[in-house]
């Protein structure tokens, strides 16, 4: 039973009648002459996706399209090995007003349900559904194994960006030999962009030597369900320290990441051999605020700032374009 496909909105059309279906859909729409799209996005719902989850990602993509008009192809696989050969299609279109009455932005969704018996025909069908000459982005959502994505090499090799969320996929996403590793983006990492920006701005007032000199410990504490975001922050901090000239092994720097039972806690601390030195950033992601305390050899500084993770549609844009 194609639960994902049936859970999503749209008008069912013959698989060979998608273009005709859109022509009819837009025929009586005032925006029919101003609905140019900027990109193609393939949202691939994996084996661990549910109907509610599929609807949520559909809504996130709609919000994304209010800023970036696009053609979205949603792949809704049916993994039942006993399912007969079948491919079905739906179309959905919607327009939004931009910054002015003349600024109209539109999104077009093509939803494709397919059983494994016809998967070999999917590449041709997807290529037909894409908007010609527009960049392609591929979002692999809740897949059960990165290795199974090999069957979708067409999307892995042609896409400008390959997106996944490490909070929702298996660990092999980080060890899988992606055809174009430089194109891969983790949505958990992009969600932390506002946090990384404010921490980076605070630390930028200090010299690299002040930050890494006598550094002995890096600690991250986080709400338990933010483990992927904490891992992303640790990776960012580690790379930043290396750029500053730190050698973790030679200096004996200890890295500690600890989950906490709390509502919105997120902390980053730097500990030094000199007890007079230190840095601590403490955020409350429920209250959307953070405090900085630092003394890296030039006197104690305190500061308050906002603190939040990017919303799903904003994280999607961040991962795709930056």
Overview of this protein structure:
This protein has 322 residues and is an alpha/beta fold. It has two domains: 3-179, no CATH class; 193-309, 60s Ribosomal Protein L30, Chain: A, CATH 3.30.1330. It has helices spanning 3-7, 18-27, 51-65, 122-129, 153-158, 187-191, 193-203, 208-212, 227-244, 248-251, 312-321, and strands spanning 11-13, 39-45, 70-78, 87-97, 104-115, 136-141, 161-164, 184-186, 215-223, 254-260, 265-272, 278-284, 289-295, 301-306. The strands form two sheets. Strands 1-4-5-3-2-6-7-8 form an eight-stranded mixed beta sheet, sandwiched between helices. A six-stranded mixed beta sheet has the order 10-9-11-12-13-14, covered by helices on one side. Helix 3 packs across helix 11. It starts with a helix and ends with a helix.
Q: Main attributes?
A:
322 residues; 6-stranded mixed sheet; 11 helices; 60s Ribosomal Protein L30, Chain: A; alpha/beta; 30% helix; 2 domains; 8-stranded mixed sheet
Give the SSE layout:
Layout: H1 3-7, E1 11-13, H2 18-27, E2 39-45, H3 51-65, E3 70-78, E4 87-97, E5 104-115, H4 122-129, E6 136-141, H5 153-158, E7 161-164, E8 184-186, H6 187-191, H7 193-203, H8 208-212, E9 215-223, H9 227-244, H10 248-251, E10 254-260, E11 265-272, E12 278-284, E13 289-295, E14 301-306, H11 312-321
